[in-house]
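[stage:ingest] chain + small molecule (magnesium ion)
[stage:ingest] validated
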Amino acid sequence: MAGVSLSRFLSAEQQAGRVDAQLRLLLESVARATVAIGAQVARGALAGVLGEAGSQNVQGEAQKKLDVIANDIFLQTSEWSGAVAAMASEEMETVHPVASACPHGDYLLLFDPLDGSSNIDVNVSVGTIFSVLKYAGNGQPQEADFLQPGRAQRAAGYAIYGPSTMLVLTVGHGVQGFTLARETGEFVLTHPDITVPPTTREFAINASNERFWEAPVQHYVRDLRAGKTGPRGEDFNMRWVASMVADVHRILSRGGVFLYPMDEKCRARGGKLRLLYEANPMSLLIEQAGGAASTGREPILDIQPQRLHQRIPVVLGSRDEVHTIVRYHEEAN
Ligand code: AHM
Ligand code: MG
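[stage:predict] done
[stage:export] tokens:
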């Protein structure tokens, strides 16, 4: 199907019974939101959108202007899709109900409107991450309705605003990558059936946190850095963009492992990355592409969430390497 538009791809998925009409509408509106966000990101300083917003989100993090703008764009675009019952985002403390004037749908939409915020002002790739759940209840959805394990996701994906804008998507049947054709404003399927190589010699971790990591992660990274002369008998390369979207995109493109492990700085909060709108959608994409995703101790997609903004340690990427990291944790016990 390479070369077809996102609309045509989704239409074929609907015919195949893999998405229903509402999910198709929802994914089309998510795509429109990412095009709008990408346009703001691309205009950068020209649009006056760089810098701090002067506010904090629920996690106590300083919001960038673009965090707030991207959140508003996502809300407005999705609200009128007719497919959403409620939304939740990194930038909002509580669940955002769909306004009564808007048509209500059967899905719950979670998102990190602009991931990699620290990279906005330095013109390095950032992205938008999203996760779609089914709403089983009636009436106004509550926070508890969003607390579904990652395996229950009906769709997940991200947009990356890099040299080109791409949308990478799964509806539970493999992973497809679309590139934005700026002339037409349409996403075109350029990377059908993405798979992650099972083995790798590349890892991504914020090495400045080394002294705060748990023993198994310290041990694992020490063994990688020892290279050919160490226990792994091979040289490893390291990359860290500090935009999860960009690091995961590289792994989906050529393999690798990404770690944001538990460390002493973030232990009280449960980890650094958020389960529902960062770890879960990325884990579904990685598993759908043949990779693996774990906290180091259990598969991320099996975790029963307790809170909307819950955080979690994340290890994901090439399957064999993730399994090796899990073994380091088991052996430490
Ligand atoms: P954000 O959602 O506030 O941008 O934070 C998440 C980001 C990830 O994109 C990235 O992997 C990580 O935080 C970077 O952390 P660090 O600043 O420790 O390098
Ligand atoms: Mg984020």
